[in-house]
């Protein structure tokens, strides 16, 4: 599995050009891409990164990748990030790693968003392989859960012994739908519930999908 992730990550980093402002995603696949970006920096590339989590920020700092904040730039040239599901329209479920809010903000401001996955993440319909992560405020989260479940899912608070708290101080409900037939409608309905901060449906945000397989690396755009 790591082999496929590494292949996808290396392929995506071929799109990085000297002088770019880069969004740095989060997760075990993106970690390999950040490692490659660190090598480019050591080889003299002038790159600046915007990390999507504290975890990625730590990794980038350890590799001496210069960092900035979104407010300090007028665009992000390219973001490389992972995903938990990818459908045939390049729509995604993200957030199993817990960084969906910052990842979605960074994706929104990116000229190109390259998604790197191994082939197990490819699905015909979103919501068939994994639960949909939804980030909610701690305040009244049980009420928020009830409203989310009215949309046709079973919502499970992330964290068995103590709740998982995101980098933004919120909680996550993993919402099991039996397939999501209209992700656009669901995304709107979820985000209109007070207490929902963001949902893990990334719609019309990915420009490229790089799939690492046992034999080859496929680039879809
Ligand atoms: C984190 C994410 C990750 O990109 C996603 O969970 C994929 O992670 P991995 O590459 O470890 O499978 O959305 O919030």
From TrEMBL:
Q: Which GO terms describe its biological process?
A: pentose-phosphate shunt, non-oxidative branch
The record's top EC class is: isomerase
**What EC number(s) would the UniProt record show?**
5.3.1.6
What's the short name of a Pfam family annotated to this entry?
Rib_5-P_isom_A
Q: Where is the active site?
A: 103 (proton acceptor)
SUPFAM superfamilies reported in the protein's UniProt record? D-ribose-5-phosphate isomerase (RpiA), lid domain, NagB/RpiA/CoA transferase-like
Which pathway does the record list?
Carbohydrate degradation; pentose phosphate pathway; D-ribose 5-phosphate from D-ribulose 5-phosphate (non-oxidative stage): step 1/1
Q: Per its UniProt record, what Gene3D superfamilies does this chain match? A: 3.30.70.260, 3.40.50.1360
Q: Which InterPro entries does the annotation name?
A: NagB/RpiA_transferase-like, Ribose-5P_isomerase, Ribose5P_isomerase_typA_subgr, Ribose5P_isomerase_type_A
Catalyses: aldehydo-D-ribose 5-phosphate = D-ribulose 5-phosphate
Q: Is Hydrolase included in the keywords of this UniProt record? A: no
The terms under GO molecular function for this entry are: ribose-5-phosphate isomerase activity
Instruction: Keywords in alphabetical order, please.
Output: Isomerase
Residues binding substrate are 26-29, 81-84, 94-97, 121
Q: What does this protein do?
A: Catalyzes the reversible conversion of ribose-5-phosphate to ribulose 5-phosphate.
Quaternary context? Homodimer.
**Family under the similarity heading:** Belongs to the ribose 5-phosphate isomerase family.
Q: Which HAMAP family match?
A: Rib_5P_isom_A
**Name the UniProt record assigns to this protein:** Ribose-5-phosphate isomerase A
Q: Provide the species name.
A: Methanomassiliicoccus intestinalis (strain Issoire-Mx1)
């Amino acid at each position: 599995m790591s082999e496929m992730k590494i292949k996808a990550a290396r392929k995506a980093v071929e799109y990085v050009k000297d002088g770019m402002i880069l969004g740095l995603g989060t997760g075990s696949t993106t970690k390999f891409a950040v490692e490659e970006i660190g090598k480019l920096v050591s080889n003299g590339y002038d790159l600046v990164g915007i990390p999507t989590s504290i975890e990625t920020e730590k990794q980038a700092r350890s590799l001496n990748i210069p960092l900035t904040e979104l407010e300090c730039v007028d665009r992000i040239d390219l973001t490389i990030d992972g995903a938990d599901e990818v459908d045939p329209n390049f729509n995604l479920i993200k957030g199993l790693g817990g960084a969906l809010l910052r990842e979605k903000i960074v994706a929104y401001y990116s000229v190109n968003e390259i998604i790197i996955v191994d082939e197990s993440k490819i699905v015909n319909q979103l919501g068939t392989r994994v639960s949909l992560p939804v980030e909610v405020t701690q305040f009244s989260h049980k009420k928020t859960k009830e409203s989310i479940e009215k949309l046709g899912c079973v919502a499970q608070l992330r964290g068995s012994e103590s709740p998982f708290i995101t980098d933004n101080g919120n909680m996550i409900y993993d919402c099991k739908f039996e397939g999501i037939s209209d992700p656009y409608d669901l995304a709107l309905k979820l985000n209109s519930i007070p207490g929902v901060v963001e949902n893990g449906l990334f719609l019309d945000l990915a420009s490229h999908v790089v799939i690492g397989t046992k034999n080859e690396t496929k680039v879809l755009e």
